[in-house]
Amino acid sequence: MKFFEKLLIANRGEIAIRVMRACRELDIDTVAIYSDADKNALHVRYADEAFYVGEAHPSKSYLNMERIIDIAKKCGAEAVHPGYGFLAENYRFAKLCQDEGVTFVGPRWKSIKAMGSKIGSKQMMKDAGVPVLPGTDGGITDIEEAKKIAADIGYPVIVKASAGGGGIGMQIVHDEKSLEEAISGSQRIAKSAFGDATVFVEKYLIKPRHIEFQVLVDEHKNAVHLYDRECSIQRRHQKLIEEAPSPIMTDELRERMSASALKVAEASDYTNAGSVEFLYSQGNYYFMEMNTRLQVEHTITEFITGIDLVKQQIAIAAGESLQFEQKDLSIRGHAIECRINAEDPLNNFAADPGKILRYRSPGGPGIRVDSGIHMGYTIPPNYDSMIAKLCAWDSTRHDAIQRMRRAISEYIVLGIKTTLPLHYAIMNNQQFIDGNTHTHFLQEEHILKT
Ligand code: ADP
């Protein structure tokens, strides 16, 4: 049975190709969209059909909802997959799809909207009995009130944008005298980045771990989790390396955290694929947010569960029931993902777009590369700097690390600076090898200087 005849991918780069691969295996025709900067991009060539969407700037192309829906309708695409980034967590887009009779491959717009507010979702989870970090209950309107709450929970605290994403607008505050300025600074950034100046304060955890759970829920209320991912290795609060499962996970902790993750999904009336993010510190975990989309790091969950998450997303969007239950699932082996960015790790991760003069990606057993680049390709400066995801799987964590080292050493990318040397150094770092990671790992280990 075909879920859809034709599907439009409202994205670019590796994730557009990833979705198209699933479609091809499902006999679904694919439609790409491209901006001026992407005329020669791989995702355009991979698709069955491709349509020009607008100028290079995302607001003129990959964020242009009306234009994208227009293309979908004109070419007869019954469904739209948003990938991640761009419109993936924009409830207005999901709603527009629904209003225009095009299936949005993702959750209902109301769930996206509910989870789009960090304040609202935190409150919802608190009410549902899921642990959350102490902080201001809503957006800050009264600075004296915020000072009082910060003093009660104790410094350090973190100021966060309610509509935030990508680590933007977050500020760590160590004492009361810096609080007011941090709040107004975050409000300014939040206003310009997200069009919403609402910020809140919560307890800042020292060296927590970022652990998230993948969930899948169909439209018939069947829900499963697909275990955990550890995403603690970050730069500027953004993930750089992920692994599944988390090296510190025990059966007992997994039991508790996965139950919370499913509670989060239930409380938000969630459907399709999503990830529930927690911070973990000293035996306790706290709900941080839910990502209502396919994650960059879904690949490692696919490795350890054998489940194709994109195919599941498409089947769920078509109204199908999940074909498995929790008891049918198990973890097989260990998987690691390195995000290869066109950035100079020795120069504060400055972006380094440009032409790729030589390119050879690794292969062999247990290796997966998802990428939108190739030899001779010029990386445009207009978009995200991630150029490839390198994933390694093996039966144990130790062997997966060995395999990742081997794969990195096979990887040839010449012409631009990448994070590959940093990844290699991390794979050889004793703390990483021992599984002692936390969100301050990169700053603390001074990896490239040793
Ligand atoms: P965004 O949505 O902008 O990506 P998140 O809320 O997902 O922001 O947080 C991203 C990262 O910021 C986390 O993985 C963690 O490293 C750090 N962080 C966020 N909140 C806290 C906190 N209360 N204490 C310590 N670190 C935090």
UniProtKB/TrEMBL annotation:
EC supergroup of this enzyme: ligase
What positions does the domain ATP-grasp occupy? 122-318
Q: Which cofactor does it need?
A: Co(2+); Mn(2+)
Record carries keyword Ribonucleoprotein: no
Write the Enzyme Commission number(s) for this entry: 6.4.1.1
UniProt xrefs under SUPFAM superfamilies: Glutathione synthetase ATP-binding domain-like, PreATP-grasp domain, Rudiment single hybrid motif
Protein keywords = ATP-binding, Biotin, Gluconeogenesis, Ligase, Magnesium, Nucleotide-binding, Pyruvate
What is its pathway? Answer: Carbohydrate biosynthesis; gluconeogenesis
User: Mind listing the GO biological process terms from this record?
Assistant: gluconeogenesis
Positions of the Biotin carboxylation domain: 3-447
List the Gene Ontology MF annotations in alphabetical order.
ATP binding; metal ion binding; pyruvate carboxylase activity
Q: Which Pfam families match?
A: Biotin_carb_C, Biotin_carb_N, CPSase_L_D2
This enzyme catalyses: hydrogencarbonate + pyruvate + ATP = oxaloacetate + ADP + phosphate + H(+)
Quaternary structure, per UniProt, is: Heterooctamer of four A and four B subunits.
PANTHER family to which the protein is assigned, alphabetical: CARBOXYLASE:PYRUVATE/ACETYL-COA/PROPIONYL-COA CARBOXYLASE, METHYLCROTONOYL-COA CARBOXYLASE SUBUNIT ALPHA, MITOCHONDRIAL-RELATED
Role played: Pyruvate carboxylase catalyzes a 2-step reaction, involving the ATP-dependent carboxylation of the covalently attached biotin in the first step and the transfer of the carboxyl group to pyruvate in the second.
The name under which this protein is listed is Pyruvate carboxylase subunit A
Organism, by scientific name, is: Methanoregula formicica (strain DSM 22288 / NBRC 105244 / SMSP)
